[in-house]
C-alpha cells in the first residue's frame, strides 16, 4: 500500500483522482484485481450463484462450514475461519478475533440480489405461433431498458422429490439467448407519446423463447410451439411444465462483463449493485489473518425488495448464527450476544450514484460521488428530509476518516442526488437497530439498476482497500 501524501483534507479529497497516486506496480494491481472481479461477476448473476462461488473460494482460503463444526461437536477459537449458509441465498463469513466477541465485531454487509425479471409461477404459453414466458420484474427497473437486448435464464427448478436442477441458458458463446421484443419505430406513434414510465408496461415484459412447432400428432394441433419447447426442456433438464411452479428462474442480461472506455479504466457488467461491494468485502475479509476483533462479511439477499423474507437482512439468521458461535466458544448467554451486536461497527457496503455529466441536473456537485475518486461514504440516504435514513454519527465518520487517511485509501463523500430529487435506502438501518455504528459506503456507479452498469476499476480497488483498512483498524 502506498501512502498518499496528498490525502489528509476532505476538501482536497474531492479534487483528486485515485488514479493519480498509483505507480506502475500499483496500476497493475488495480487492473489485475478487476480481472478477478470480472470473472466473478460474469458467472455469478443470481444470489444463489454468488453464495456458491463465495463458499468455494472461502473453502480454498481455509473457511469451514459452521453446520459441520456443530454437527461434529467441535468448538470455535480465535483465528478460526467460518461460514454459515442460509438457504443458499445468504452467507455470513467470520474470522474469529483474539478479543472476546462481546467487545464487538467489524462487519461488512453487502447484498447479492440484483434487479431482474423473474419468471411467474405459470410462465409458459403460446401466442400467435410463438412460445412465450410471463415475468414479474424484481426490484427497481426502468422497464424500457429490458427490451431488445439479449437475455439469459439463470436459476433452479426443484422437482417434487427435492432434486434441485440448476439452469443456465444464454451465457456460452454457442448458447441461444432470449429476449423481450420492442415495438418497431414505424408503428410506435402512440407508444412514443406516452410517458417513459408507461412506454413499456410491466405486464408486457414477456420473453420470446421459441417458434418451431412440434409435428402435429394424435393429440391435435393446439400449442405445438409450446409443446416443442417443453420437449427441449425435458430433454436437457428432465423438467415438465408443472415443475415451473417450484422453480426460481431469473432472466438477466446475457454476456460477460467488459472493459469500458478506450483506456479500459471502467467495467461494464450486470449486477454491480451490489455484487461489486460483495466481492470487494469478500476479498478484504480473505486478506484478514488473526484479527483482534472478530471480522465478518455478510452477503444478503432481497435488499432490492426491502430486505424482507428469511434470506433478507431483517431475518434473524445473522443473530442466530452469532448465538451458535458464542455457544461454540463455550460461554453462551444472551447478554454476550447483545453486547457483541451493540458494540460492533459496520460498513453497509452498497453502491452509490456516480456523477454523470449527461444528467447533471439531478446532482449537487459539491456532494456527489465521482467515478475514479474512490470509496464513497454516504452519511445518510433516504428521501424527503432524510426520511428512512440511518444517518451515521459524526464521531463514527471521524474514526473512519482517520483510518482511510492512515491507509492512503482514496475516499469521497456523497449523497444520492439533489435534495428532494428522489432517494434510496440500504440495509444500514437494519443492523443499526442493534445499537451499533453503521454507515453506508461503496462504489459509485453510472447506470445503476440498468441491465449494464458501469464502475471505475480504481473505485473497485479502493473499496477493497478501504474495507480491509476498516476490518483491521476500526
Ligand atoms: Mn444496492
Ligand atoms: Mn439497488
Query: In terms of per-residue confidence, which ranges show pLDDT below 50 for 5 or more consecutive residues?
Result: 1-15
CA gyration radius, whole angstroms? 24 Å
Number of helices: 13
| Structural domains: how many | 2
Distance between the termini: 18 Å
Side by side, the strands of the main sheet go 1-2-3-13-4-14-18-16-17
In which range does the helix fraction lie?
25-40%
Mean pLDDT comes to 94
CATH superfamily of the largest domain: Zn peptidases
Which class of secondary structure composition applies to the elements? alpha/beta
Extended strand count: 20
Briefly, what CATH class of the largest domain? Alpha Beta
Bound molecules: manganese (II) ion
Q: What is the percentage of strand-forming residues? A: 15-25%
Query: Biggest sheet, open or closed, and with what strands and sense?
Result: 9 strands, mixed
The appropriate CATH architecture of the largest domain is 3-Layer(aba) Sandwich
Can you tell me the overall shape? Answer: globular
CATH topology of the largest domain: Aminopeptidase
What topology does this entry show?
Blueprint: H1 10-13, H2 24-43, H3 47-60, E1 64-65, H4 66-71, E2 81-86, E3 90-95, E4 105-111, E5 116-127, E6 130-138, E7 151-158, E8 164-169, H5 189-193, H6 196-199, E9 207-210, H7 224-237, E10 247-253, E11 258-260, E12 266-269, H8 272-286, E13 294-300, H9 317-328, H10 334-342, E14 345-348, E15 352-353, E16 375-378, H11 394-406, E17 411-413, H12 428-432, E18 437-442, E19 444-446, E20 453-456, H13 457-473
Parallel strand pairs: 1-2, 4-13, 4-14, 14-18, 15-19, 16-17
Antiparallel strand pairs: 2-3, 3-13, 5-6, 5-10, 6-9, 7-8, 7-10, 11-12, 12-20, 16-18, 19-20
Helix pairs in contact: 2-13, 8-13, 9-10
The structure holds manganese (II) ion (MN) (2 copies).
